[in-house]
Specification:
By secondary structure, this protein is mostly helical. It is built from 17 helices and no strands.
């Protein structure tokens, strides 16, 4: 795990592009083996994601929650934590948002703000438990966050069936006052489902940059991530920083869940499996080298692949699972640091001698 954290701190953004290209090549090879035309498939994928205003709006809508979960994972990485529990924090965030959206009555605007805030608070509190266990008991966060994912999924399903939906499989729609979908923005992109979550995600990205690189507290958090023993020797409260890092990371994930409920679906249904947003956030953060700018571009790429993958399925007949193969291949190449080897061979990575 420490090796993975170290590799991602060292992964330059330019060389991450090599991993993307290699991932697409692996996907093309799978398509050729299965008898599909990769040029037709990729053409349909990228054309559907970028060429039409409606599709651009849908791509941006798909990008927003991926950016939020990617930032959640990246912040945890930067502070020395591996937050696998983003998926569960997304679920509790969406649950809190739908409770506020359906059970409360507030004025337009304020209702949406409170619902988003509730999602952030729920995600932060859900992440507080593994953060506290890590700080006080030394329990590895990978174990606790994975278990918290399953608890979140089951808890949400029980509450929906027994309380929120009254025996049905989905809740009622949220109040219009709690929606973050606005007409002017949707009309700008041919009535797509794009909503304010795009701007919320960008504000969170700006907040994360300011927090980690422009404040003393952010410096302490990054110091704990680099070497907690040295940080402790320097007088930094390591345990407090671990807990706070997990809570801030969880709040980002909670906002991602809230934005999906308040801007896209406007209700919450019983889930048989995870949404996948949290796990895709790990890939987004890895490809973005855990930087804010890198995560923004990485989320946009994954958003385009996810949305365009549907068109690839309908227009070229290629199963959507091929897109998941591309995702997995990109993660594999980033984690294996293959791009660094190729970068050194091409003269793009100048750190080889020093790192060796």
């Amino acid at each position: 795990m420490q090796a993975l954290l170290k590799m991602n701190r060292q992964s330059p953004l330019l060389l991450s592009l090599i991993s993307v290209v290699l991932g697409l090549v692996v996907g093309a090879i799978f398509m050729l083996i299965a008898g599909y035309n990769p040029i037709t498939a990729y053409g349909a994928l990228f054309a559907s994601a970028f060429l039409d205003p409606f599709d651009i709006g849908e791509t941006l809508r798909q990008t927003a929650p991926l950016l939020l979960t990617g930032l959640a994972v990246a912040l945890a990485f930067r502070t020395g934590l591996f937050n696998i529990g983003v998926e569960g924090q997304v679920i509790v965030g969406s649950l809190a948002a739908v409770i506020v959206g359906t059970k409360m009555s507030l004025p337009y605007g304020l209702h949406a703000f409170v619902a988003v805030l509730a999602g952030a608070l729920a995600g932060a509190l859900w992440a507080y438990i593994p953060g506290l266990l890590k700080a006080k008991r030394g329990v590895h966060e990978v174990i606790t966050t994975i278990m918290m994912n399953f608890i979140a999924l089951s808890l949400a399903n029980v509450l929906i069936r027994e309380w929120l939906a009254g025996g049905s499989d989905k809740t009622e729609r949220i109040s219009e006052n709690a929606s973050i979908r606005v007409d002017w923005l949707s009309s700008l992109f041919a009535n797509s489902r794009i909503n304010l979550s795009v701007f919320i995600a960008l504000l969170i990205a700006l907040f994360m940059y300011f927090l980690l690189w422009r404040t003393t507290y952010g410096y302490e958090m990054r110091s704990v991530g680099l070497n907690k023993y040295a940080a402790q020797y320097a007088g930094i409260n390591v345990n407090r920083n671990i807990v706070m890092s997990m809570m801030i990371s969880g709040s980002f994930a909670g906002i991602a869940g809230a934005s999906e409920v308040l801007g896209t679906f406007e209700y919450l249904a019983i889930q048989e499996s995870f949404t996948g947003l949290g796990f895709d956030g790990i890939a987004v953060a890895l490809l973005g080298a855990n930087t804010v700018i890198g995560t923004i571009f990485s989320a946009f790429l994954f958003g385009a692949l996810t949305y365009g993958g549907g068109a690839m399925q309908f227009e070229a007949g290629v199963p959507f699972e091929v897109v998941r193969v591309v995702f997995a291949a990109i993660i594999l190449f980033v984690a294996a640091n293959i791009s660094s080897i190729i970068g050194k061979a091409l003269g793009l990575d100048k750190r080889g001698d020093k790192d060796a």
